[in-house]
């Protein structure tokens, strides 16, 4: 039974994306909204949804994730049939078919990003909180341990005895889960005794956590601390820094391997991917009750970004790319770069390859002008960038009426045609 325009009302407008179908979000009392709790996300009417006339549902356009809006009369025993390809809704848990070979494709992404780290540490302390992100991190690193010859140690920080019964229960269970996971993999497990603490803010918890992790790293002579921060964590941190008045340089919040030896292999992976990987490995994780506390700035920022994605599909991806470009350009402006990269013999290739696209284009325009090229388009400069970014150590090609030579250390125009 299709859901009509007059059955939907509220404050979140979706008509922009589906003209003639929806007026606004929220639901009429005659239609029961089902908030679907999958292990990786709780979706609401703010997510991108499309109409399915066969089943009277709104379905999320992402693998494994569903949004349902079913008239109450169509529900029977808490279960709604969605169709052969969609799975079932059982109470609050959405179950659907797994993407084939997901585990393999996920690990390939992790391997790809780790291979881009210039000097990859081998002796690693893996910080495991008990949540999906850190559990996924340990599982992934253990799967590729032989490939990179990792020596892994598991560290779990117990945040102390709390006045909140739920928090105490969660912290004890998280410590036990991390220990069991480390034991099952044969890794050394490090943790602290649960003592009474007076931690209040997110900054307090972070400081307490890193104090223990750094202490264990030094005591056991480990080269790096691996953390499970993912794509959304990075974006949320960048937004929080902007809200607090950070300049462009502050947008470079996290990198795959920081000077402080913090290894973050998941920065190009989304939360949903990490959760699906943990599911594919058949492991469990715990959700921190504090993640639902609305007064937390990070929680508020997370909700804002989800709303943004609902109004502007792809908005989070585009925002992340903009932040990355701004951070890179700020870093380049801080360190004078043209005099370092452009020499009398040509363009120093190693430095050139580390520049952002706008900087590469600006540099190449300056360079070709010194060689008498006055007529060119933006498209031609972008094409030149693509050719110069190639993996070949040595190559020659003709472009813009000039002969270009790629050498291991230099890019240069050899002679005029």
Structural account:
The protein is α/β, with parallel strands linked by helices. It is built from 13 helices and 18 strands. It has a 5-stranded parallel beta sheet with strand order 12-11-10-13-14, sandwiched between helices. Strands 15-18-17-16 form a 4-stranded antiparallel beta sheet. Strand 17 (402-406) and strand 18 form a beta hairpin. Helix 6 packs across helix 8. The radius of gyration is 26 Å and the shape is elongated. The model is unreliable at 1-99 (pLDDT under 50).
SSE topology sketch:
Layout (H helix, E strand, L loop, with lengths): L30 E4 L2 E2 L2 E2 L6 E4 L4 E4 L7 E4 L7 E3 L6 E3 L2 E3 L6 H14 L7 E5 L4 H12 L1 H4 L2 E6 L8 H21 L2 E4 L10 H18 L4 E3 L4 H13 L18 E2 L7 H10 L16 H15 L3 H20 L3 H4 L5 E2 H5 L3 H14 L7 H11 L6 E5 L2 E5 L3 E7 L1
Parallel strand pairs: 10-11, 10-13, 11-12, 13-14
Antiparallel strand pairs: 1-6, 2-3, 4-5, 7-8, 8-9, 15-18, 16-17, 17-18
Helix pairs in contact: 2-7, 6-8, 6-9, 12-13
């Amino acid at each position: 039974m299709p859901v009509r325009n007059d059955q939907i009302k509220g404050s979140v407008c979706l008509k922009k994306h589906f003209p003639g179908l929806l007026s606004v979000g929220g639901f009429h009392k005659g239609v029961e909204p089902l908030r679907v709790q999958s292990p990786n996300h709780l979706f609401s009417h703010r997510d991108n949804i499309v109409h399915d006339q066969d089943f009277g549902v709104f379905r999320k356009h992402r693998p494994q994730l569903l949004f349902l809006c079913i008239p109450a009369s169509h529900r029977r025993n808490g279960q709604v049939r969605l169709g052969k390809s969609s799975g079932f809704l059982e109470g609050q848990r959405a179950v659907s078919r797994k993407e084939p070979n997901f585990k393999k494709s996920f690990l390939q992404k992790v391997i790809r990003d780790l291979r881009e780290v210039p000097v990859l540490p081998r002796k690693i302390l893996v910080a495991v909180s008990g949540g999906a992100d850190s559990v996924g991190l340990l599982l992934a690193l253990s799967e590729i341990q032989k490939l990179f010859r990792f020596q892994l140690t598991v560290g779990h920080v117990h945040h102390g005895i709390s006045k909140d019964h739920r928090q105490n229960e969660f912290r004890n269970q998280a410590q036990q889960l991390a220990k069991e996971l480390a034991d099952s993999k044969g890794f050394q497990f490090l943790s602290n005794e649960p003592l009474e603490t007076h931690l209040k803010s997110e900054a307090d918890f972070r400081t307490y956590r890193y104090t223990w992790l750094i202490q264990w790293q030094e005591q056991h002579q480990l080269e790096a601390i691996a953390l499970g921060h993912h794509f959304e964590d990075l974006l949320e941190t960048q937004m929080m820094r902007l809200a607090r008045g950070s300049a462009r340089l502050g947008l470079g919040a996290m990198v795959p391997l920081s000077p402080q030896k913090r290894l973050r292999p998941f920065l190009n992976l989304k939360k949903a991917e990490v959760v699906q990987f943990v599911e594919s490995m058949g492991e469990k994780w715990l959700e921190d009750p504090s993640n639902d506390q609305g007064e937390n700035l990070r929680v508020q920022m997370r909700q804002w970004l989800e709303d943004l994605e609902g109004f502007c599909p792809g908005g989070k991806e585009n925002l992340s790319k903009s932040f990355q470009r701004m951070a890179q350009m700020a870093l380049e402006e801080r360190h004078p770069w043209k005099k370092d990269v452009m020499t009398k013999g040509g363009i120093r290739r190693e430095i050139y390859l580390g520049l952002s696209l706008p900087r590469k284009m600006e540099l190449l325009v300056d360079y070709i002008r010194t060689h008498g090229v006055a007529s060119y388009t933006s498209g031609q400069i972008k094409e030149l960038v693509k050719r110069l970014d190639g993996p070949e150590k040595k190559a020659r090609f003709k472009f813009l009426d000039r002969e270009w030579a790629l050498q291991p250390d230099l890019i240069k125009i050899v002679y005029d045609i």
